[in-house]
Amino acid sequence: MLNxxxxxxxxxxxxxxxxxxxxxxxxxxxxxxLVVSSNPGAYALQRAEKANIPTTVLRRRTxxxxxxxxxxxxxxxxxxxxxxxxxxxxxxxxxEQVIRAYRNRIINIHxxxxxxxxxxxxxxxxxxxxALARGVKVTGATVHFVNEICDGGPIILQKAVAVQxxxxxxxxxRRVMEQVEWKLLPKAAALFCAGRLHVTxxxxxxDEEAEA
Length: 212
Prior knowledge:
The protein is α/β, with parallel strands linked by helices. The chain has helices at residues 13-23, 43-50, 66-79, 96-101, 125-134, 169-193; strands spanning 2-8, 30-37, 55-57, 82-87, 106-110, 138-145, 155-162, 197-200, 203-206. InterPro entries: Formyl_transf_N, Formyl_transf_N_sf, GART.
């Protein structure tokens, strides 16, 4: 059973999706044992507490240097015996030091089909605004491992969502979350914890032979 730490900053809808999946037995080889928030007022903390998951708040601005913040974060993760880190709307920079310590053990979900509408500046509603402005007919979400390049890590899972006439960024955001994000993120966590994800030369393969 692997320990999962979920890093959050806001409302925690993706955290809730993970908690719900765990409660349904869909992540049988892992469990969420820690939620770390960069924001003491994040509603995600209430979601964690309701699910009896321990929480910690680490605010970047309370540390003089990035290195000090990194050390504190790594210490918390190590004390929790963390095997997998899931970024669920985490708005604080993940440094190279943390990435090196957890190489191919940090996953993130991005609300587009990478490599479209990703990288610096593409987060939250900005992604959906850009998709609608470009006039794409299909968007979606991508779960990927985190590396030193923003949204540049190896892709684990992707799924498309149709853009509909009359969509606003808010409507499209909600559809992507409901149809894709809340399903793909728990699935990726389950695959990781089952030892079914392998990264070779920057490409992820999924071990289908281990599937029950």
